Fold this sequence. Notes:
Layout: H1 3-103
Amino acid sequence: xxxxDEATIQIVTGRFERRVAEETGTLRVDMATQxxxxxxDMATQxxxxxxDMATEFGKVRAEMATGLGGLRSEMIDRNHELLxxxxxxxxxxxxAIAALLALFR
Length: 105
């Protein structure tokens, strides 16, 4: 190879490296822009999703509070009935024992 060929190869190689560097830089800028847009979209979507979840969880909490309030009411009524029948049972037992004691005296 001659000096002219080597100089031409160096010039071509330099141009190629500059072109690759320019294209790589452009690609990096485009990627950064697209990733920035994607991050902004994701942040918006996640914000919307969080708001929707908070709303739905609020509805579930309200339904649970209503359901548990009804359950408490039923439990109070059931305990009232059990206490009433226990008192009736013990009152009749005491009366029966008193009657037996009076009978055997």
